[in-house]
Amino acid sequence: MDSEERARLIGQYRDGYAAVAEALLKITPEELDARAAPNRWTAREIVHHLADSETTSAIRLRRLLAEDHPHIQGYDQEEFARRLHYERSHQTSLELFRYARMATAELLECLQPADWLREGTHSESGRYTVEDWLRIYADHAHKHARQIREARAAAVK
Length: 157
Hints:
Blueprint lengths: L2 H22 L4 H4 L10 H24 L4 E2 L4 H7 L7 H20 L8 E4 L3 E4 H9 L1 H16 L2
Parallel strand pairs: 1-2
Antiparallel strand pairs: 2-3
Helix pairs in contact: 1-5, 1-6, 1-7, 3-5, 3-7
């Protein structure tokens, strides 16, 4: 990954919260709990997932940077959704997502060339680098912002 691509992905990562916040703007209670399809998440559930994913990813990045060859454990996002009460209010999770992402974006801006070469082993995908991490999470929030708009659209049908 060259420095230009890295800068673009960091910018996309930094913009993720704004994309989600915009997708949630003026959301109604009906839209918050609508599903685009039977097995798809609601906007509320997506926000909780983003908070859980963001805090997990923040720890993954920090372990990659601070530990030598860490083992990065995967998790079952569907089990998180089932067991972590995703029916609760979404506001605190939205703020958790916002600030975890903000702190991690600040950290990304501090990384030196050697930091980008650090790696560990992911329990599900094997070799896992800081650059892999960035490629995965740069667009993550944007994908979910699109899913929120799809779920909202299902409420008006």
